[in-house]
Amino acid sequence: MNAQAIEVRLVSRPKGKPTLDDFAVIETEIPTPAEGQILVRNLVMSVDPYMRGRMNDVKSYSPPFELDKVMTGGALGEVVESTVDSFKAGDVVLHQLGWRTHAALDAKYAVKVDPAAAPLNAYLGVLGMTGLTAYAGLLDVADFKPGDTVFVSGAAGAVGSVVGQLAKLKGAKRVIGSAGSAAKVRHLIDDLGFDAAFNYKDGPVAEQLRAAAPEGIDVYFDNVGGEHLEAAIDSSNLHGRMAICGMISLYNNTEPAAAPRNLPSIIGKRITIRGMLVADHFGMQQQFVSEVAPLVAKGELKFEETVVDGIRNAPQAFLDLLDGANTGKMLVHLAD
Ligand code: NDP
């Protein structure tokens, strides 16, 4: 067999925290594009927390990964062969067949991107899915208004870092972030302009949030769930609004989590809590890019990346993401 392509397969469903044994890195043949397809050599791929949910065999908004099959996810690559007029060799495309070095896909599932308009990696992060999640979650789901005090958890990550900076740029009174290390806390304040930040591992989140937001919070952008959500309810002002984007603290749980113990206080405080899925907000894509791309180009909205090299290291990159090894977007470079 002509072994020139490499792909990553899920070979067992993790119980609790995933391990490298749940993945297999397989050498395989480069696929041949069928009529209507393009062959793409992937340059960079995304690892994302939602992929943990897809490793479980449960019905969810995103179907489970199939065992012993190559995994999928956001990727950017260069077209090397095309059977359609709309794409030619050399075009750079965004698509969903990551976790492999080479992908043959229907042309209709590929979106051309302009490598001259922004650094390529940005299309998988600040100008891509995680950026849109932050933008739509803050402005639409949480109905952010200038003058709001905003709290965001997972604040040094891909989504959270954009949420906090956008809130500042759009006139928040105060922006508070939580993250899992002293270095990340410093980064939020020194580099990203947060007004306050704390390490959630240093002590009870409710106490640290109360200290950071003595006048309470109006908006909570939840990336973490659990104790963070309980703390946000505790510190919420009247008519507080919460966008529930992710609950990463629960993703490896093997038992259902205890509910926030203070749920009844959402009644007296008239808190609005809304779950969100980025897919419901693709209609905002143009508005998002036209507003955020110039902010990125001018350096007013900063984006960090943690980049791991090589497809063989993709499983470890994913495990590291769940452990907080990343600042900003976690990506895997596949090009030689
Ligand atoms: P991040 O870049 O934020 O990476 C994940 C981060 O989560 C880690 O860096 C780590 O940072 C933090 N983390 C891990 N375990 C815990 C824990 N037990 N408690 C607190 N923090 C923890 O990922 P994304 O920005 O891509 O995603 C952020 C959240 O948004 C996730 O929950 C994700 O599922 C969700 N999401 C939802 C979407 C939607 O459509 N609803 C779309 C995209 C993302 P630290 O060092 O600070 O612990």
In sequence order, what are the helices and strands, one letter per element?
EEEHEEEEEHEHEHEHEHEHEHEHE
| Overall pLDDT confidence | 96
The biggest sheet amounts to:
7 strands, mixed
**What is the highest CATH level, the class of the largest domain?**
Alpha Beta
Total strand segments: 16
CATH superfamily label of the largest domain: Medium-chain alcohol dehydrogenases, catalytic domain
The count of domains is: 2
Instruction: Tell the overall outline.
Output: globular
Q: List all distinct small molecules, including ions and cofactors, that are bound in this structure.
A: NADPH dihydro-nicotinamide-adenine-dinucleotide phosphate
Q: What Rg is obtained from the alpha carbons, in whole angstroms?
A: 20 Å
Uncertain spans:
none
Fold-level CATH name of the largest domain: Quinone Oxidoreductase, Chain A, domain 1
What gap, in angstroms, lies between the N and C termini? 22 Å
Strand content: 25-35%
Helicity, as a percent range: 10-25%
Summed up, the helix count is: 9
